[in-house]
Amino acid sequence: MTKAEIFTLPARRGRACRLGKGQAIKIINTHGHQVVDTWAFSAEDLHEFMSMEHMRPTIGTIFPTKGHHLQTNRRRSILFFEEDTSPGIHDTLLAACDDYRYGLLGCTEYHDNCTDNLYAGMRQIGLTPPEVPSPLNLWMNIPVAKDGKTGWGEPLSKAGDYVVLRAQMDCIIAMSACPQDILPINKGKPVEAHYQIVS
Ligand SMILES: [Zn+2]
C-alpha cells in the first residue's frame, strides 16, 4: 500500500481539495493546539454545503464526533465523522473569524482571518464559494455553561491528534488554520496543521 501524501496547511492560511464520494480526509493537529475551521461543499452545486445549524438537530448535540453524519443545508449527509483521536471537543456555534472580528478586538490593521482563507483556499483550485457557511471548528474549545454562557478555552487535543472525515458525496473540503492570536483558542500561537487524502 502506498503511503498517502501529507499536505501542509500553513499557519494562518487556507487550503482546499476535492474528495470523491468514498474518499476521506485525515486532518492532523500536528502541534496539538491549532484550531482548523473546516467547510464542505457539494462538488455538483456549491450552494449545497455542510451546515452546522442543519446538522445539530440531526445529531442531537453541539459536539459532533466519531460516528456522526455531518449534514448539508439540504439535510443530506456530506461527511461521515469516521475517526477522532482527540477528546471530541469541536465547536459548531461560532462563525469563522473575519477582519471585522479583529477590528472589534482592537486591531487597526488587516489581520489574517478564516473567512479570507476560505476564499483564498478555494481560489487555488479555481472555485469561489457562494457564501461563508458557519464552519466546523475542529478542536476549538468553546465551553458552554448550564446557563448558556460561552467561554474561550484552549484546545484539549494533543500533538498528532487527528480526525478522519469520509465523503458521502463528491465534495470540496476547505480548511483554515485559524490565525486567531488574541484570544486563547490557539494557545495564542497559530501554527501549521497537516492533512492527507486517504481511501
Ligand atoms: Zn479563525
Low-confidence stretches: none
Question: What about the largest sheet?
Answer: 6 strands, antiparallel
Class derived from helix and strand content: alpha+beta
Count of individual domains: 1
Identify every distinct bound molecule in the structure, by name, code or SMILES: zinc ion
Shape: globular
The proportion of residues forming helix, as a percent range, comes to 10-25%
Q: Helix segment count?
A: 3
Output the strand order for the largest sheet: 1-10-3-8-6-5
Task: Report, as a whole number of angstroms, the end-to-end distance.
Answer: 11 Å
Strand content: 25-35%
Average of pLDDT = 96
The number of E-state strands comes to: 10
Order of helices and strands: EEEEHEEHHEEEE
Computed over alpha carbons, the radius of gyration is 16 Å
Summarize the model shown.
The strands form two sheets. Strands 1-10-3-8-6-5 form a six-stranded antiparallel beta sheet. A four-stranded antiparallel beta sheet has the order 2-9-4-7, with helices on one face.
Describe the structure in your own words.
The structure is a single chain. This protein is α+β, with helices and mostly antiparallel strands. The protein has one domain. It contains three helices and ten strands. It has helices at 52-59, 99-104, 114-124; strands at 7-9, 14-19, 24-29, 36-42, 69-71, 77-84, 136-138, 161-167, 171-177, 193-198. The strands form two sheets. The chain has a six-stranded antiparallel beta sheet. A hairpin with a 5-residue loop joins strand 5 and strand 6. The longest helix has 11 residues, at 114-124. The protein is globular. The N and C termini lie close together (11 Å). 42% of the residues are buried. Zinc ion binds next to loops.
